[in-house]
Amino acid sequence: MIAYHPIFVHTLPDGHRFPMIKYELIYEQLLYQGIADSSMFFSPEVIDDRFVFATHDDAYWKRALGLTLSPAEVRRIGFPLSKELIEREQRIAEGTRRAAIYALNTGCAFNIAGGTHHAGYDWGEGFCLLNDQAIAATYLLNEEKISKVLIIDLDVHQGNGTANIFENNDRVFTFSMHCEKNFPFRKERSDLDVGLPDGVTDDDYLKQLEVILAQLFEKVNPAFVFYLSGVDVLATDKLGKLKLSMDACKKRDLLVFKHCKRRAIPVQISMGGGYSADIRHIVDAHCQTFKVAVDLNLL
């Protein structure tokens, strides 16, 4: 199943439509290319606050709900604070939580949005107020009695919020492979961080990732995987600083999915970042991730 809701696009504050319009375009492109059909999609409701409070600081989220975050906190988030923005975050988080439940039962599920990995325990940052995969992981651990979760974050930016939330949680292993000299400039400590130099190309990236994933799946032996498949690793990305091709993104996704399939481990995927000047590159790269899962009979 795939989480999608047009509120991801239409209720953002003025001036912040691009690249958020990608969510609507991904949905349309998946249908147009026949990668997915309308029966595979669901629209998430607003998440119950109890699932948020299980992951984030109560006081932080209550201030966000009341639109009383300080000017400094709002600047750190990067979006003007509004009821519409809060609702968007609530629906994204619920989409990933429900997608995780679907994946638990069927093997694989996506959220067209999500990947809000810069939101920490008591702070928002980098256009993220709630950490969707951290909320879903906490739900699975607490409510579904999942024993061990592996979070694979292959966005070009470190998953600093995710690392912060699970810093002292031995039931969650956080792995972030990112561009070292890129946002966030103050990194948190994941269980495994691989900081890449600027300009890394396909072969170098894939060789490192292949070795790391083989070791991680063996060492962690997860019961569930969350995968953040950001496409800001592309050479065309305005903010990424890495030099990966579209084909390398496909092979990257394939490496993750093959490990999950070989071990019959459920996987939930959130889209993460993508900031290429031509939005077609962003949409095509994200849709390619869905197609890889379909071709492997995961979705």
UniProtKB/TrEMBL annotation:
<keyword id="KW-0378">Hydrolase</keyword>
<dbReference type="InterPro" id="IPR023696">
    <property type="entry name" value="Ureohydrolase_dom_sf"/>
</dbReference>
<dbReference type="InterPro" id="IPR044150">
    <property type="entry name" value="HDAC_classIV"/>
</dbReference>
<protein>
    <submittedName>
        <fullName>Histone deacetylase</fullName>
    </submittedName>
</protein>
<dbReference type="InterPro" id="IPR037138">
    <property type="entry name" value="His_deacetylse_dom_sf"/>
</dbReference>
<feature type="domain" description="Histone deacetylase">
    <location>
        <begin position="16"/>
        <end position="285"/>
    </location>
</feature>
<dbReference type="InterPro" id="IPR000286">
    <property type="entry name" value="HDACs"/>
</dbReference>
<comment type="similarity">
    <text>Belongs to the histone deacetylase family.</text>
</comment>
<dbReference type="InterPro" id="IPR023801">
    <property type="entry name" value="His_deacetylse_dom"/>
</dbReference>
<dbReference type="Pfam" id="PF00850">
    <property type="entry name" value="Hist_deacetyl"/>
</dbReference>
